[in-house]
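can u pls check wat happens w/ NAP
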Amino acid sequence: MKTLKVGMLGAGVVGSQIARLLIANKSDLASRAGANLELVSIAVKDSKLKRDGIPAALLTNDAKSIVNDPQIDLVIEVIGGIDPAKELILTALKNGKSVVTANKALLAKHGAELYAAADKANVDLYYEAAVAGAIPILRPLRESLVGDHVIRVMGIVNGTTNYILTKMDENGAAFADALKEAQALGFAESDPSADIEGFDAAAKAAILAGLAFHSRVTDNDVYREGISKITAADVKVAKAMEMVIKLLAIAELTPEGAVSVRVHPALISRTHPLASVRDSFNAVFVEAESAGQMMFYGKGAGGAPTASAILGDLVAVARHKVNGGIGPKESDYADLKIAQIGQTKTRYLIRLNVADKPGVLESVAHVFASHQVSIQTVRQTGAGDKAELIVMTHSSNESSLSATVKDLKNLPVVTDVASVLRVEGVN
Amino acid sequence: MKTLKVGMLGAGVVGSQIARLLIANKSDLASRAGANLELVSIAVKDSKLKRDGIPAALLTNDAKSIVNDPQIDLVIEVIGGIDPAKELILTALKNGKSVVTANKALLAKHGAELYAAADKANVDLYYEAAVAGAIPILRPLRESLVGDHVIRVMGIVNGTTNYILTKMDENGAAFADALKEAQALGFAESDPSADIEGFDAAAKAAILAGLAFHSRVTDNDVYREGISKITAADVKVAKAMEMVIKLLAIAELTPEGAVSVRVHPALISRTHPLASVRDSFNAVFVEAESAGQMMFYGKGAGGAPTASAILGDLVAVARHKVNGGIGPKESDYADLKIAQIGQTKTRYLIRLNVADKPGVLESVAHVFASHQVSIQTVRQTGAGDKAELIVMTHSSNESSLSATVKDLKNLPVVTDVASVLRVEGVN
Ligand SMILES: NC(=O)c1ccc[n+]([C@@H]2O[C@H](COP(=O)([O-])OP(=O)(O)OC[C@H]3O[C@@H](n4cnc5c(N)ncnc54)[C@H](OP(=O)(O)O)[C@@H]3O)[C@@H](O)[C@H]2O)c1
Ligand SMILES: NC(=O)c1ccc[n+]([C@@H]2O[C@H](COP(=O)([O-])OP(=O)(O)OC[C@H]3O[C@@H](n4cnc5c(N)ncnc54)[C@H](OP(=O)(O)O)[C@@H]3O)[C@@H](O)[C@H]2O)c1
């Protein structure tokens, strides 16, 4: 049996698990790949540090030596970030090595350049682990659904924010307290902004949108709102309406044939399949013309789950090296436009604190009507100084809705616009 | 751009949708496959019959002419059944054509012979549509999880039985009434035995087991029980215990390293992800060593969803014809043994009608203990002549459990063993 030499860049949370599994499952992986996969070198920042289960002789702090080593056939990149990951991957590809990576940040920003380099070198660049960890979602989108037309992809793709929102829903906790709990348990980093402000989800949304719609989409194309403004009061209202708040990464076709790609918190019905995705689990809901509605559910992060996805890709690219051929390339033939957020249509739930006087509802309704935003339901709670109006709109343009909210804020009877939330999963 | 000629065998529920989509989505499919996919011939039983959207000139009743036509590159088989599908596929493969099929019955019985023929001819034999319709599950198992060790696959893979069980759960309907409703709505055939006796699910279980465990598994290896004995009383008890009854196709690794593969109704907790799979939807729950728990959910049947899966496969095999290479082959290197059902361990829920006398519980408990079946909980309901004992066991061998039930039936204080149901999704 042939032997393929594997070099790995990084041995952190994910890389250490990959190394462990490559060694422990050597013989199964060989049977499945049709070649021995021999881990010959691992680049880290600190090559002097002892690492459990990793032979010290494999470690180097010279990452370039790996991507330039003519003996090495396959490269795994699990350093993360743009620099030096980008140059290392480009060099590996140019040198004829197939590359497997989990680097969503890099792919969302420089995907086009990397795909072109892989194409030019006629090697594989695989990255199933970059979105939703262990859940097979990129391969199904790229291969299983390639004979269909995807209409919408809607995912819970960030475990940290889903954990926080789950705790807020379960315990009525405030955002800050739920975040602290997540940090204490290791579900959120000490600087949590990449997660809670939606940057991580936005990178994944860009990758999903590009594959689903055969177009080029980068992180800059993604409209983004995080969850830090979600209050316990929002969660309580959602509950009362049998809904739940989730941070969603959405990529959908607009009626005009553009792609709307966005990340924001949204209300969904408790009966929606995504509503039962709790804690740090991830799930991606896909709607396609012929296939209908699908959902893919599982662990979105963690060393071992992410390593599982990386090794699946590694076996695939190894098979290609053994048997010839190459995986399907990124296709951007459809070249769809990105829809402006102002033109994106959704339903909204708006909570207003109002004076409890006759005529309040009339003046509020007038503001909505003046912007062609039509109201589906209005509910009034409390009384006296604390009266609250909860307005659910029909599907409306984001720009009309923004204009409505601006005018509501200036309305004398409105003390405060307490919150504005999108409602997804209904038409 | 190159043109690949496609021949199709069958134009029924699935075939007619494939033909429609091949024509309607011609240009998208070409961009994605890298070649025009031209449907040149369709075999049917009655070639004189007019068919909506299908040019009459494409129809023939000579299926052999398609698989022997040297002009044809790719063959789609959607006739179903063993004869003549098997010979037609074998001939097509031998003649160097890649084949895409949805024929689970054939693959579960003669898979090994067909895979060997494809291997010998160095062409693709793809069949994503054979299990769970539009849901990408075979490709994820075969490719995405190839670097991992699957521990268990547990699926709701038959829409008809899931529809019936959902109605029994929602309305407290009797089996016969729910079946009649399903037939009236077209969710069950007039002869429903392939579905309700679990034959269809068993074929799918065999295919899933083979892929998950890299072993050869045929429909004869699958232990099978249908749902026709499930009563409204069973459903009621399940509900009271916050569980739901589902027909499950299970393939799992036993502690001895064999594969247990079986289809039977079972109780699962209402909090299990499979519990919320309702009506005719399908879902497959997968547990793997590194990836953890995953679920794949969607439409398991229907013309358009099944056609979506077929077209995904068609584009994949077309790409291979254009770019060289070939998809991953079935691997059976692990060659695991099939576990006997007697050795399979599960938990059980047993309902007994008993006399309401002192000492009843003692003699019942004695029978369980004598077969080393340990009891987790006992609940007594009713009183007088109608007393009922509901016993939940810990995990037990099927053979010990059967011996227990036999002895219980002979116990004077037991009037009747009302039902014996497996409990899944807990350890
Ligand atoms: N963690 C997850 O659950 C998860 C899930 C999905 C995707 N991902 C992605 O997987 C990638 C890796 O994540 P991770 O959590 O494993 O990161 P990590 O724990 O921070 O590990 C990074 C590794 O890269 C090494 N490294 C950093 N700079 C280097 C340089 N210039 N040259 C050589 N080695 C260098 C570090 O070396 P030292 O060990 O010496 O510091 C460390 O071993 C990222 O792209 C991430 O987005 C992670
Ligand atoms: N229906 C689903 O939802 C579904 C889902 C997943 C998988 N599948 C699988 O897909 C396959 C097709 O199912 P289906 O529901 O489309 O079946 P179907 O509606 O019964 O269609 C069968 C087709 O095959 C043709 N045919 C039968 N015998 C033939 C012969 N000897 N030579 C040439 N043509 C012949 C029939 O011709 P006529 O039209 O002239 O009668 C008909 O067009 C089966 O393997 C099934 O298990 C079906």
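Chain B has three domains: 3-132+303-323, 138-299, 342-423.
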